[in-house]
Write a structure and sequence with these properties.
- This protein is mainly alpha-helical.
- The chain has two domains: about 30 residues; about 60 residues, DNA polymerase, domain 1 (Orthogonal Bundle), CATH 1.10.150.
- Helices cover about 55% and strands about 5% of the residues.
- It contains four helices and two strands; from the N terminus they run αβαααβ.
- Strands 1-2 form a two-stranded parallel sheet.
Length: about 90
Amino acid sequence: MKRLRKLLVLVVAVSMVLAVVQIVGAEEGKKININTAVKEELIELDRIGPKYAERIIEYREKVAPFEKPEDVMKVKGIGKKTYEANKDRIVVK
């Protein structure tokens, strides 16, 4: 009986871990529209912290909306490495 209980606990624990991994994985693949995203959404991108998120917002408000994802490199401090790390997640619809 103890063996069955241990097995059941193990199965439940593994199921919970897999559920968390699936949720986190779904968030990592989330598309982010850099023309409409708020600061909290922008910092979900790799290599983008609060300051760069603010720069993205400031650029689109003061200069122009982004026409294509790679235009994010027009923002001061955001270069090719940052763009490459996020190119599959950035959209400009």
